[in-house]
Design a protein that fits this description.
Bound molecules: zinc ion
Number of helices: 3
Shape: elongated
Distance between the termini: 15 Å
Number of strands: 8
Structural class: alpha+beta
Strand content: 35-45%
Helix content: 25-40%
Largest sheet: 5 strands, antiparallel
Length: 132
């Protein structure tokens, strides 16, 4: 089963998509399998990280800004190479095990769509594969 979702994003930020992914798993009816969350964009990504303290997402964004600052030597004509670098480092997907009909996320884990070059209209996919 494939589920498609659309988001309007801020200039930068981590948007929780845990509820949408859990909803897709519930709708699929799959009891045991794999869930892949995929971002089809080159300046955004997907990650799993802490869902309790929102300051963690803020700090991750600060860490990415520090790790991938804008650089006058960048050549890409669109002028958003730092965002491309952040997206590559973050990765464009996350995989979570489904067992007994629920995602095996840790208590403190949430799934996030990571915007590095917004605001934009974005899409992400959730693919659910049943284990045999
Ligand atoms: Zn670009």
């Amino acid at each position: 089963m494939l589920y498609t979702y659309h988001l309007k994003t801020p200039p930068e930020g981590f948007l929780s998509i845990t509820a949408q992914v859990k909803g897709a798993v519930a709708e699929s009816g799959v009891q045991s399998g794999i869930c892949v969350v995929f971002c089809p964009h080159t300046t955004a990504g997907i990650t799993i990280n802490e869902n309790a303290d929102p300051d963690v997402q803020t700090d991750l964004l600060l860490a990415y800004r520090a790790a991938f600052p804008d650089c006058a030597a960048f050549r890409h004509c669109e002028g958003n190479s730092a965002a491309h670098a952040k997206a590559s480092a973050m990765g464009s997907s996350a995989t979570v095990i489904i067992e007994n009909g629920i995602l095996l996320l840790g208590t403190w884990q949430g799934i996030y769509f990571c915007e590095f070059d917004g605001p934009r209209n974005r899409t992400f996919y959730v693919k659910i594969i049943e284990a045999r």
